[in-house]
Design brief:
alpha+beta; globular; 442 residues; binds pyrrole-2-carboxylate; single chain
């Protein structure tokens, strides 16, 4: 079947979507599979997930939240533990929460041994994930600079470098001249206000395509029999005594003895259902992207003192963010104040960006914890598991949280790597202080 040619047809993964003229004037055909798909009346299931119609009356495990963490947990439950009678319930759509609202940075240069070990495993899993999920996640190792603009920031960077090296993580302190050579377009004096004294350089620092991470895990789980139910809201969790018995949804009741909350940004709504107290406080975290620019930045730049982080995407856009909003709020509204403040700091770092336009901005809802570490694992409620407290550090933990939560649920025993992140640490005064390794001051 021939389709009339039009110049400049859009490309989808390098394949002409509609029609185009070849250089010799002949017409390029639309791929047959696409034509068939376009013309058929009953569209088959999407390539990524099966779309189950009905909820079953019971499952072995219900996962609340089809973001990266929930889907990764489902995937590893099925793949590593053979537990496939699992429903993932999502009030919106797959990856529509914080998974689709972050700046996709992956790194393991944390401050505490517990944090370093945990995120190092995540980086390792990420490095093989495209192959594992058979999906190009555009995982791109860039190198990650955390700039220090003061003596005390230099001390923290040195401290992090030493802890990192102890655990074989590639992290080292760099001086001004080396940074200037590696990032030639950056103003090392930051407009004279906050000169860069040095930086923590972390070679494995990377970015990845966040949606694809969720889709890949979702497809992997769905292919193994897990059901993903979008537009299905959890309205309550039933318990008998201290044991979970099932969940009430806006589509009916599901009996289930194991329920996992993977709903960063909505954690208090779910923990209230089982009368569990956590110290989580919700703050909006905003981000934005610029119009596409010629490539000039191949590393990730973070400045804790200026409250800004930036990388350049493969499309040329600058992906930028700052710290969480000043006040707790359960909302994903974006503000002009945020862009204005961020632009000010970005111009200190890269003054030549003055005429560049911001084309999109968005916000996520961050589950902030007092020590800037997550809350994971079993809880005092039998059958209720928490994957929460992901603040501004959740995307990079997607694979390791999925893997360790799946282990914990399958064995009813906290995985070794997540024991330090147990909820009870707050009453035991055993905090895991990661504030010094958060990307920006808060
Ligand atoms: O922890 O790497 C990080 C991060 C980047 C943006 C927000 N948090």
């Amino acid at each position: 079947m021939g389709i009339q040619a039009r110049k400049g047809a859009p490309l989808l993964f390098g394949t002409p979507v509609f029609h185009s003229k070849k250089q010799d004037g002949s017409v390029r055909l639309m791929p047959f599979r696409l034509v068939k798909q376009a013309l058929r009346k009953n569209k088959p299931d999407s390539r990524f997930f099966k779309t189950p119609t009905d909820l079953q009356s019971s499952y072995d495990v219900v996962i609340i939240g089809a973001g990266g963490h929930g889907l990764a947990c489902a995937y590893y439950l099925a793949r590593d533990h053979g537990i496939t009678n699992v429903a993932v319930l999502e009030q919106g759509y797959i990856g529509g929460g914080n998974t689709g609202r972050n700046t996709t940075i992956v790194r393991s240069n944390y401050l505490t041994p517990e944090g370093v070990r945990f995120y190092d495993e995540s980086v390792r899993l990420f490095q093989d994930l495209s192959e594992d999920l058979d999906l190009n996640l555009f995982y791109s190792t860039r190198g990650h600079f955390t700039l220090a603009h003061s003596d005390s920031a230099m001390r923290t960077m040195r401290w992090r470098a030493e802890v990192n090296k102890h655990y074989d993580i590639e992290s080292e302190l760099w001086g001004r001249d080396d940074i200037a050579r590696a990032v030639p377009f950056m103003d090392m004096d930051c407009g004279g206000q906050h000169p860069v004294l040095g930086a923590l350089y972390h070679a494995p620092g990377a970015v990845a395509r966040h949606d694809a991470v969720a889709w890949g895990y979702g497809r992997g789980a769905s292919n193994r029999g897990v059901e993903i139910h979008q537009k299905t809201k959890v309205c309550g969790i039933r318990m008998i005594g201290n044991q979970v018995e099932g969940v009430d949804t806006d589509r009916g009741f599901i009996a289930c003895k194991k329920v996992v909350s993977c709903v960063a940004g909505s954690t208090p709504r779910i923990t209230d259902m089982v009368r569990l107290r956590t110290p989580v406080e919700i703050r909006p975290l905003q981000a934005c992207v610029s119009e596409p620019l010629k490539p000039f930045l191949d590393t990730i730049i973070v400045s804790g003192s200026l409250h800004v982080y930036v990388s350049q995407s493969s499309r040329g856009e600058l992906v930028m963010g700052a710290s969480v909003d000043r006040a707790p709020l359960h909302s994903t509204r974006s503000t002009f104040d945020f862009v204005e403040d961020l632009a000010d700091k970005m111009l200190d770092l890269f003054p030549f960006l003055g005429g560049v336009k911001i084309v999109r901005q968005w916000a996520g809802m961050a589950d902030m914890t007092p020590d800037f570490a997550p809350i994971m694992g079993t809880t005092p409620i039998y059958g209720f598991y928490l994957d929460a407290g992901w603040g501004t550090w959740g995307f990079k933990a997607t694979p390791v949280s999925g893997k360790t939560m799946a282990y914990t649920i399958a064995n009813d025993d906290d995985h070794e790597l997540i024991k330090p992140f147990r909820l009870s640490r707050f009453s035991e005064y055993a905090l895991v202080g990661e504030k010094g390794a958060a990307s920006v001051g808060h």
